[in-house]
Fold this protein.
Amino acid sequence: MMNEEFLAGMQKMLKDEYPAYLKETEHESRRGFRVNSLKISDDEFFSLTGFPREKSPFADHAYYLNEAGAGSSPAHAAGLFYIQEPSAGSAVTVMKPEPGMRILDLCAAPGSKTTQTAEYMQNRGLLVANEINPKRAQILKQNVERIGAANVLVLNCSPAEIAKRFSGWFDMVLCDAPCSGEGMFRKNSEAQMYWSKEAVLSCAARQRNILESAYECLKKGGVLVYSTCTFSVEENEENMAWFCGQHPDMHIEETGVRFGRKAFDIFEGSSLARRIFPMDGGEGHFICRLRRDGDGQPRELPLLKSERIPDEASAFLKQQLAVQYPYYHCYGSKIYGGTYPFIDPGKCRIVRHQVLLGEMKNRRFEPDHAMYQSSFGKMNSIIELDYEEAVGYLHGLTIKKQCRKGYYAVSYGGYPLGFAKSDGQILKNKYPKEYRLR
């Protein structure tokens, strides 16, 4: 049973639509996914997987998910799609990222909006994805690597630390703020247990602190998108009223979308924001797009100093990669590749800077799983598996294949799952143990 105080608030908010809301909560939540345009087209994806094709209105390449066990499929392991609650795709749709931009996802884990933004950027520009919680930052890293983005800097620090280093640096900032999660009650019944009016007000206060850091990171003329997955006016329209009051150079813009409905008109411009309720085909979201006055030119940040890349690593990369990365960085024994210069994030803790290609071990280069998952370029040495072999590979099994000795990208349907090393008769499985199917 939902909290009575929460329901009373929803009744006051929705008025005549309250019975429709209650009726929707009796049904199971809708699941969704996005086809990863960094790796595959929509038509190719549905031809490969045979998934039912029911379009979601909230994002490009987004569909409702009606397939059981999708997260254990070879197509998911290959990063061909990302499972995402349908309305969660709305914020990036409103943001409208473009290739070549500098973009910050300030509260990024587990990565649904980061990966969606990366798809828009097509490996051009730089996407900084930050998560303050170390464990969640690792999940964010894994999802970024699986979808194959080659231009993402994953950080693990506070929004305030980001603001100190990247003041006025970003063309766009996405602030998908931690919230009371009222829009997830149907999806996650446990979230209902922790709801209280006090928790809502606590979230609203924390969101204001995060918004201050988001503002500091945004260049003049830049776009800030604020979003939550909650219904409360305190965390949504009232926070936007407070924020615009604190910063008169920030103005709410039209979202340019038709899904959902107008936000509540509690101050000038607030109705330009967008709300999504379960009656609108998703779980629940609030999205507000704002622009900062002016025309700012971001300052240049220093680059990380790279050590010399060992000859063994250079030779391996030339042999394996059909297209070389525009930028390389060597730190200690590890070598990274990227499509954007390796900027120095200062005191912000780096979880992953673009693509970890591998590391030197006893004067031998050992490639990393991320290199074979990357969407940038293609591999020269590829071994194709059928469906049963692919599932076996994801379970960690060795695969019998006669071929020349060496490293290979292991693919399903032409899309790499990871890599393996051949002794001429079998493929030694290099799929990470922590990712393997149980």
